[in-house]
Amino acid sequence: MDKFAELKYMSGFGNEFSSEDPRCPGALPEGQNSPQICPYGLYAEQLSGSAFTCPRSTNRRSWLYRILPSVCHKPFQPVHQGYLTHSWDEAEPEPNQLRWKPFEIPKATQRKLDFVTGLHTVCGAGEPRSREGLAIHIFTCNSSMINRCFYNSDGDFLIVPQQGKLLITTEFGKLMVEPNEICVIQQGMRFSVEVFGETRGYILEIYGGHFELPDLGPIGANGLANPRDFLVPVAWYEDRQVAEGYTVVNKYQGKLFTAQQSSSPFNVVAWHGNYTPYKYNLSNFMVINSVAFDHADPSIFTVLTAKSTRPGVAVADFVIFPPRWAVATKTFRPPYYHRNCMSEFMGLIKGTYEAKEEGFVAGGATLHSMMTPHGPDGACFEKASTSKLVPERIAEGTMAFMFESSFSLAVTKWGLKSSLDKNYYKCWETLKSHFSPKNPNVQSL
What we know:
This protein is mainly β and 445 residues long. It has helices at 378-386, 413-417; strands at 9-11, 17-20, 43-48, 61-66, 77-78, 98-100, 119-127, 132-141, 148-152, 156-163, 166-170, 173-177, 181-185, 191-194, 199-206, 230-233, 241-252, 255-263, 268-273, 278-281, 302-307, 314-321, 324-326, 343-350, 365-368, 392-394, 399-405, 410-411. The strands form six sheets. A nine-stranded antiparallel beta sheet has the order 1-16-20-13-10-15-8-7-28. The protein is globular, with a radius of gyration of 23 Å.
């Protein structure tokens, strides 16, 4: 039996949760958050994900009842941060359409990489000190984090595994996250990642605010990602001393620091609140689509959004393109050719993407920057323009996604040299003119 099959979760998005490790019933104080003496001699510690004075609807905080408070560590010291960066001026601006082949995962025999040492920044914008902007990272790892945990003072991580399972231990409990699932570890939450072989995925980091479910507007009360399908871990603790020292890695103002402590940080016996890590299975997404004519905008596929101060404009949206039915009549069904005031970074978890069946491969990515034209390749255009328009199931066995942002994204030096497909532009070279000035009613190409 899978030893992780017994992991339990609570469901709901942004709910008020409470959880106790069953080994310590009654660990949550009754009637108050910070009693003079907590049950079992625990320490009370609040983790705030918003300002104290935020409106109740946006106020995020959780109370943790732990064996030792998280302040029990030696001073932080700077460490080498590898390819993790927020220096957006290290390379010249690159307006071209970019495509990456699958990012290479080093063999453990060549170089051991855990989740932290395997972080590579591809692109981003903004500045973590001002809490405005985002970064997009790739993680490639082959080893588990041993007596090491990580937390991000700069913002939230939306983690999209593409190859290999992630067993993520957090202060709130354990999450098993597999390809075709995502998880969000919010600002300040300590976590450690166990892997089971060569592992790869994508990360969207937002510096300000938190991810939310998008407003549904005319769609109504139900649809897209349903709140009940988001899962939150239950309390689990370990009371473990580490003689050789436990390392806490902190990302602060874009830099990495480490501190040593003598015990495991996953010593939270009970907790309650609405500021938690969570995961979501993308197969639960309720797709909304056109059932008459024309191709709906990709915003109908938004799973999570991080809003900006401008109504309707996101710092970042997480959008997916799941299996669905296509039934639109008299319509070119693949994505239309497009120039966008937003930046579009796409990744592929599995399968083949309908608009580019060749070249865009699982574990790779594309970036179409602000106002840079993009759209279906030549083969896709010819096929979609001549195929019989019958109801068809599309994207079966596929899951592509997009990180879309109102920020103009700068690509890092690593992003411009690692796995970059320099022939991407050629996929449009086969497009040819079908213009017929004497025949306005062209029936076939």
